[in-house]
TrEMBL record:
Domain EAL positions: 153-407
Domain Response regulatory intervals: 5-129
Sites of 4-aspartylphosphate modification: D55
Keyword NADP included in the entry's annotation: no
Gene3D superfamilies, per database record: 3.40.50.2300, EAL domain (3.20.20.450)
One of the Pfam families matching this protein, by short name: EAL
Keyword Phosphoprotein belongs to the record: yes
Matches recorded under InterPro entries: CheY-like_superfamily (IPR011006), Cyclic-di-GMP_PDE-like (IPR050706), EAL_dom (IPR001633), EAL_sf (IPR035919), Sig_transdc_resp-reg_receiver (IPR001789)
PROSITE patterns with a match to the protein in the record: EAL (PS50883), RESPONSE_REGULATORY (PS50110)
Lineage: superkingdom: Bacteria
Alphabetical UniProt keywords: Phosphoprotein
Name of the molecule in the record: EAL domain-containing protein
Transmembrane spans: none
Amino acid sequence: MENLNVMLVSGSSRDNDRFQRMLFRAGIRNIRHCGHIREAEQQLLREPVDLLVCDIQMPDGGGAELIAKVYAGVRRGELADTPMLLWQSAAGKLLQESHVRLAREAGFNYVWVTHPSMDDGECALFLRQVELAREAMAEAARVNGVPGRLGTRPFSEQEVIEALCSKGNISIDLQPQVRLRDGAVVGAEALARCMHPTRGNIRPSVFLPVVSKLGLDLLLFFHVLSGVIATQQALNEQGVRLPISINASAATLASPNLVREITMRWDKTKLARSLLVIELTENIEPEIGLDLMVALNQLRANGFDIACDDYGIGISSLKMLSAMPFSSLKLDQLFVASMLESSRHYEIVRSSILLGKELNLQVIAEGVESARHVKALREMGCETGQGFGLYRPMAPSRYIELARRAPVEWDARSPDS
Ligand code: C2E
Ligand code: CA
Ligand code: CA
């Protein structure tokens, strides 16, 4: 804990001092404090921290504003990661809960709330949770390649370009999709990975915008498709036939001749077209262009499946759902991961599953983070799940092994634990 970097953001210097003394007694020495949001933002960008302790109510705008600034900093690649967050507030439960939701939506994976009069005993308990969170992040970094050590220097655009241009540095991971009833692996999603020659993995949220800026979306798409084709051929040799999905933005899908090119490359494999799924993915809402509609209809007519990705956020509106010939619906992890703590999110997940079923779509819940999620989703009638509580994204060689012998591994765990 001695190496934990903390920033206290509070309008009250008395609260700041009290909290600082308490952390000091717990052995934490690297503590900074700020009395203003703007100052906190500038300091965070200069020197990131592991733990942010922030007042919900601040004199210059409120802690929510700082969350938005951190979110923007991460998206621009100026911050390597979001810190853990402890909200401090004497406000009512409703406001506290909505601030927790807000932070989760902004990508904060570890969020807690406390009242300003936290004592040493509560502080010790809280720091234990922080320790557990750090262990989980270190494990995620080990298994998944995400930068788990907070406070690492963000990648510069030049470094991302270096990584993209180095031979063999773009690869794919596959994240299994699981039939929730019995744990059988029923498919996978291909996720692009980019490795910097000296600094390790770069997150998709950092390298994908650079790919787009350089106009390389199509190149990346076909690179991922090649990885998927190679995996499907290896699986086919083992007698395993399970679909794999590829992410594609609306702009990629609307490129001229794309469907013809996909179909031609796929047909060379002599594999069934139903083994390839295209996920329509994007964070910003585009016009539902005619080109996109044409591409999706052609893909479907050619026998490929199409998934509506990130349902509930961004592009995947009801308008999209009614206009496009989707075969499956992927419920965004934002709602699924937090549905056990938020009754609103629970209801959104439940009603989206019903809607998907009514529309004859296969519903895949993303963000299945624990056995409790599996249990709740099963009760809601959701048949398929994807998430860290089932399987993390893995190298194709591991996926091939898993797909050969599943569902044995998953079944060993109790869905009620
Ligand atoms: P996505 O399509 O929603 O992919 C799922 C993301 O959620 C992956 O992050 C995956 O590692 C993560 N994830 C899976 N299970 C859980 C869980 O239980 N909890 C949480 N918190 N997260 C989970 P990743 O690999 O960082 O990818 C991020 C996004 O980057 C993807 O989101 C997708 O939008 C985009 N992306 C990835 N590969 C490609 C690609 O080849 N092309 C395009 N256009 N976009 C891609
Ligand atoms: Ca996806
Ligand atoms: Ca998704």
